[in-house]
Protein 1
Amino acid sequence: MPGIYAEVRDSGQVWRGASGVADVDTGRPVTPDMRHRVGSVTKTFTAAAILQQVEEGRIELDAPIGHYLRRLVPGERGESITVRMLLNNTSGIPDYLPSAFPSFRGFPSLSDVSPESLDDNRFRTFHPTELIEMGLTAPPVGEPGSPTGTYSNTNYLLLGQLLQQVTGAPAEEYITRKIIEPAGLHHTEFPTGPHIEGPHSRMYESLFGLIDPPRDYSVYDASWVSTGAALVSTMEDLNDFYGQLLNGEIVNHSSLTQMQRTVPVRALDGTMINYGLGLHKVTFPGCGTFWGHDGTVWGASTLSLTSADGKRQMSLAMNLARWNKIDSSGKPQHHPIDDALSTLYRRAVCGDGTHQAEPGQPT
């Protein structure tokens, strides 16, 4: 792991720490205040913006998406998939990733994956509707409203189009104006090009050992994830955001209750998570329930968790992604980094480092 940086809060006390390097060639150190591509943590911002529109009466959670986006999701599918199903990933719409990145068509079988598409798409600008079409034309991964969902970025790009439809503004602009700026998140933004503004680390992608040594993807056009995973932020801003969200300052308490209604969802790596409306629920036996989200884009990993009572928070960033090499069957192997992270999580969220996370939760 080249570098890791984090901020932990406990009842008003704040700890910030960093270890390692931001650039393996120059040895430039990481610092706790660096900006970072936070990946799918973006989904909580998008979900909160949708819930604000629900509060204003412009969107109904259980209304069919076809009532709003008839051209994008026509026919029976548009009538059977609701806004809520997009938010909690029970729509049955698959992820567009294997279509947007053709060398990933074999995923989740990693032995059939190559990194070629990562470089092909570095400066490619996708339009959200292009990616949505890829997801909608792929075979469904379940029936709409199934008891168990399947995580899909396509859902959150559709939610971005829904925001634009009802507000008249691009979703990124609306989220910036109504979520990011009122919350005082001065280092959080949707990038407008492939570069990150402000101090940041290089971001190294290993792709399960297929890229060796890991390659820097900090310069990358984020249009491939837009309202699903494009945000750049700092660990301080993420703790501020989740603290305000869980305190009812970004959406009202009724909306927050909706966001915290979880269903079992199968993540892209095959693990099961408890997923609400843009929120993960993680339980650490002995020290309670935490809410937040993780995120991974090429070369960057993030996790942000806040305790249910808001007193304890942890946000951390890593500048290496997918470090687990694959075995002969194409499955990721356990790595010592996993053990180190498990120890860090326990110490950060529980304080004494003696508690274990539930199976299937961050370890």
Protein 2
Amino acid sequence: MSGNLAGALLMLLGMAAFALNDTIGKWLVADYGVAQVILLRSLAACLLMAPFFLRGKGIVARVKSAPRPGLQALRAICATAEVFCFYLAVFYMPLVDVMAFWMAAPIYVVAVSPLLLGERVSAKTWTAVAVGFAGVLILLAPSLQVSGLGVLFALLGTAAFAAMVILGRSLRETPDRDLVLFQLAAALVAGVLLAPFDWQPVRSAGDLGLLFLLGLVATGAHMLVTRSLKLADASVVAPLQYSLLVWGALLGFIVFGDVPATGMIAGAALIVGSGLIVLRRTQREDEAARSKAPAPDLAEPQDTAA
């Protein structure tokens, strides 16, 4: 099996796992507090990731040696705010509607990157961004009829997600394992602080299993996507991320009986279309930048650490 084919299959599995994770989360927040769900989800994820976190230098040393600690903390806070907002949004709104809002996050990143990252954006990319924003506006109309609070949390969550992506670009020198550690630690701390205010007794062993399964599925989804991006070209697998909407619509209908509204479908189509254009333009710009970069000096030893 070729790397691109294996990577594509892993990306599709990763998106299915994310959709399953989101479905379980929506099911649980109907009966349990969001902070309680996030606390137990984070505990399960930490247990699963413990062997990776404990490998190499200690956790405390890793935290102390992390570059740009202020940005690290801000990124972890944004990541925690994003997951809180997502679960609050799905409490009020259909699952696929919330997913469609999240699909617009890359458009937000492109829109603010000239200001925050100093990146140049072409006129064609700006046109795609405008189309994406039009999709968000179309999506807002039916969503506001369902829940104003849900829309508020969805917009705040996508803004937090976009901020997390931008901060991640500024922290490229930080190992992925450390970024995950800081992100999980922040969510765990937030859960510990906030869960006591809305703690509900776990009703059954099945619910307890779902609470911990949430963390396992989310971690597995992240691993699948990460492996996919290492095996295949980004141009092959990145567009497959939009399959999340298909899974969201399917699971939302099967589990919750949600039927996507016409306005939601139209808005999501514009968001996906603009996202694909932005993605393609970005990949072309990256390829052009790499082609202009000087070749490495073969006389010098190259860093091949994985």
Protein 3
Amino acid sequence: MNVRRPHISAVALAAVTALGIGTLSACSSDGAAAGNTDKFDVVASFYPMAYLAEQIGGEHVHVTSLTQPGQEPHDLEISAKQTAQLEESDAALYLKGLQPTVDEAIGQSPVKTKIDAATLTSLEEHGTEAGGHEDEHGEDEHSEDGHAEDEHGHEHTHEGGEDPHIWLDPVKYAEVAEGVGKAFEKADPDHAGDYRKNTAALVGTLTDLDKKFETGLADRKTDVFITTHAAFGYLAERYGLTEEAISGLDPESEPSGARVKELQQMAKADGVTTVFYETLVSDRTAKTLAGDAGLETDVLDPLEGITDASRGDDYVQVMEANLKALQTALGAK
């Protein structure tokens, strides 16, 4: 991987400094800055990456997240302090395509080990609809890893290109974990054995979680669920569901009146009971749609960060809470 030396103009530096220097180190055991410890210092872009680094690195790593709890990661702007912190770290773990300012900062950073989670599994395009069992030509189509792609008969709009929300599919997340583990082994060979062991344990945990979803959603009344933004496309495909998003991959985008009307009609036709929203983005649109259509609302957490409002303390707990919410909404037994 080519490493470009950092080049930040005075104007850009002033701009990022004005945005504040609230660096998060809640994922680490102490508040020391990355690069200033005697451990393998990893800067992670946001919670799902920090969780992988902590679980795989164990006692050998010091993890610092660029995204603070409660901060919408899509909106992150890198501060000057974070840029300096990144340059002093041993490794950067990020998901290219989710946070443009992070992609740019890591691309310009001299950090030796750069791990892009998007290269460790396959990405797909998702629009406001994802999942189902048939493609748009009405033919049953499956990808190489065995899950269904696209829903029959409905028009697709790929608004954001490749969907970065791979961590919400436990199988894809496990693939990423394996790649991160190998990268840690290579970058810090003195602790390779422990990284290998920790990776295997994490993959086992994620495999168990996958089985819980598969079993827990097997017997259900409907396949369709409605969310505020299209974060759950990979999860929908994995378990044969269809996600209908009010907006696309961008959580801040506003739906058209036609889209809202379409969702209301779809909810009635497909037996949808619930409109899901998330804790880091306004629930106004979801509650308006639900109220107009006589539906319930509930949280389906895209796990972009853990806060006091999260239904669990870590990735696995919140995903299990998501499973319960989906079971209720889909009428699963």
Protein 4
Amino acid sequence: MDRLDNTVRPYAWGSRTAIPRLLGTEPTGEPQAEMWMGAHPGAPSRTARGTLAEVIDADPERELGKEAVAKFGPRLPFLLKILAADAPLSLQVHPDLAQAREGYADEERRGVPLDAPERNYKDANHKPELICALTEFDGLCGFRSPERAADLLAALGVDSLKPYVDLLHARPEDAALREVLTAILTADREETARTVAEAAAACARLGGDHAPYAQLAHHYPGDPGVLAAMLLNHVRLQPGEALFLGAGVPHAYLSGLGVEIMANSDNVLRCGLTPKHVDVPELLRVVRFEASDPGVLRPEAAPDGEEVYETPTDEFRLSRHVLPEGGTAHDLTRDTPQILLCTAGAVRAGEHELGPGRSVFVPAGEKAEISGAGTVFRATVVV
């Protein structure tokens, strides 16, 4: 079992205080957006044996187990994070596995450099993800029904939004959502900026269901993504609740602290709320134009006090143990690799004492026992 020393990424949207408060450290004055736990080449966790990527590369079957290597290859297939958002992240969508492989092969064939700003596919993998709230957490997830989206836009009383309202009322669901999103993202930018400004003022005046979009416009004035976001469900998670984001589902995180786990991929197609490249044709190829409920997940009880966040993906499995004062130890030994993350209290994992924000990597088959009083998230795979 290896104690992990993890990198914190200073993205501009990150909170300056949430991760330091969790870790019990002094703020640096910079945004501290994400703390990464895993073997991602961009910022692999460090151990006493070297980086976690180096440890796994040296003996994949020993660290990951034969079954995991056979199913996912000689790499850790997930990345675990603590995410602290103080401002909205970009509105985005992820490809499915077939789309990722096709898009990556196409860009490789065309010689698009991996670090080019217009590059969409950094790898040939999909990127399902799960966010579990540690504090109240706001996000956008999946399309509203066209009728509800039309009502939200119509209530603003902005004349330039009326064509979108009419389209949402007049077409079948998938066509309505596709046509309106396409129109928003391809409209003249100066005209769109004026519409966004009018819409933002109306959202601020109306409040209620419109309030989140006034905040988006505050952070991204004139951005078409503000209008695109109004097509989506707004959701507020309470601590312990989670969202699963599958392929093709547009989403954005707005604010809060959470534990995030995802397949180990960097493939993102952006819809807005960003100065970065937006590839509208490729985005429209990937988005699933169907209204859906956000599907808030609550953990399901499993043996030995484990609470599991059930998802349809095998690259990761996230669960938690809430250990009461004076409780018994729990044996978490598995034939798959694990990362154990403490988010509250004080727990012991093997020979390691863990406080909030501290984590360990457990090689496949290695004995993993936890005890103490606190909350431990457990990340592993399904084989």
